[in-house]
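User: Predict structure, ligand zinc ion.
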Amino acid sequence: MRVECVVVFATLPPMTAGIARTPGDDAYALIEQMYPICRSITGDGVRATLSIINGIAPLTLTEVPSGESVLDWTVPPEWNIRDAYVADASGRRVIDFQQSNLHVVNYSEPVSARLTLDDLRPHLHALPDRPDSIPYRTSYYERSWGFCVTQHQLDALEPGEYDVCIDSSLEPGSLTYGELVVPGRSEDEILVSSHVCHPSLADDNLSGIAISALLARTLLEGPPPRHTIRFVYAPGTIGAITWLSRNRETATRIRHGLTLTCLGDAHPFTYKRTLAGSAVIDRAAAHVLATSGLEHQLIDFFPYGYDERQYNSPGFRLPVGSLMRGRHGQFPEYHTSADNLDFVSQARLAESFEVLSRLIAVVDGDRRLINTAPYGEPQLGSRGLYGALGGTQIPDAQLAMLWILNLSDGEHSLLDIAERAQIAFEAVASTAAVLEEHGLLVDA
Ligand code: ZN
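Assistant: Predicted complex:
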């Protein structure tokens, strides 16, 4: 079933008169709206989240029924939750889902019981080394139930009896994913994929979702890109597997791809390469990060982390890298209640939006050109080309021109030239456009 998503729950706040909002402000406002929602791999939390994204850029939603076979997996029953708590003998809620949705193990089956503390204890999860944080735990594929608490909460529980309630449902329903396609001039595609299954965790991955949605909106408002750019918002693992299962034909058109996660924290950027490590997206990411002047690291692919591992699997082998700041599992706030609205900032989100926008523009704009006057060096002065470049912001524009003319032999792309000449891609591309206008370059 494919349905147009028309329900809009929220949009960005109106612009304050005279104060321009930055992409970082917009991303933060979106994260604030999505943060309270209890998401999971299925259920109304995902739908509510996709409705918020739909307020930014129009999504197409797909509902895939529970029980459907998707590659080697099966779409699970749909999970929804209304309330959950542990109450002491006086009726006071000592653990309360209404305070934080992280308090309930995600995908907990319904339960209503009176238990002693000793019987309850195996169902309680805490982090002794981070006693102020609630851990994030899931039990998607094994029926169980549990609560997550701070170590302080756990330590404060007195022996005695407790009323335990999880008002959840695990029933036949569907898994929901959203897509947005920015039509390009070519059928070749760029994939931008974000997981939408984590509950109240701001960096992982509301930051990725927000940045992705804002880029989609920006691209829809601009001139058509060369590639068709497909944004996928799907639950982690099972959602990407479901999307791949239902889009095998589309997947064959994907030339470049990225998963986005953890883009709002204060860590330096991390780019995780594709399996091959030498794809255009890998080289473009290295180039954009190097020329951004921002601290960063490039790491090789490994089959863990986020949905890049599904896209890079041997049956698909799609060149999908991953852009993030803090790395999966490598910072203390990861998968805890400390990954909250204070852990992400407008300034870091703005940087991430800028890096992502440049990266997509480089991948989309990379192409091969041919020098139409390849014998010797064409006369630039007689063509008025020194003047044409005089007003640009490109340092050493003449050298850029000479590099482009030298390497535009049909073999080297603009990114090859940018790497070889150590000039930012944007300067190479805009200089090439001037040479193209003057008839010195044509498409290879
Ligand atoms: Zn995660």
